[in-house]
Design a protein that fits this description.
Length: 128
């Protein structure tokens, strides 16, 4: 799903895009000439593996993702924005939600997760 940067409205607009049973949904709006703010959620099942035992399992994802889309390289110091925010730079004038979703899924996958078996182990090990 691609949206032309210059057509992004100033009022928050809802969007939803789904790919391989993972969904990105939320709102986006233009906050300056070169920046679009996106307030979204990633929902769905992401296949990942347990960092303790290595077995594959389905991670049920429900995460908030807030990011800015910059049309071209933005010198963010000139913008009155929070530096902690993720900035997605686009070069062709189109916001590609598939690309954004793919890279978010990759970063979610790169975190550490434990499968149900290992989760149960760690709960059992807690002593009061
Ligand atoms: Zn495990």
């Amino acid at each position: 799903m691609k949206i032309e940067f210059r057509k992004v409205p100033l009022q928050p607009k809802e969007f939803e895009f789904e790919d391989n049973s993972v969904k990105i949904l939320g709102t986006f709006c233009k906050i300056s000439q070169r920046l679009v703010e996106c307030d979204a959620k990633i929902k769905g099942v992401i296949k990942t593996s347990c960092y303790k035992c290595g077995s594959d399992f389905d991670y049920n994802c429900d995460e908030d993702v807030n990011f800015l889309v910059s049309n071209g390289i933005t010198n963010i110091e000139n913008e009155d924005k929070n530096l902690d925010q993720i900035i997605v730079e686009i070069e062709d004038g189109f916001i590609d939600f598939k690309e954004i979703l793919d890279s978010e899924i990759e970063s979610i996958k790169s975190e550490y997760y434990t499968c149900h078996n290992c989760n149960e182990d760690s709960i059992v090990n807690i002593e009061y």
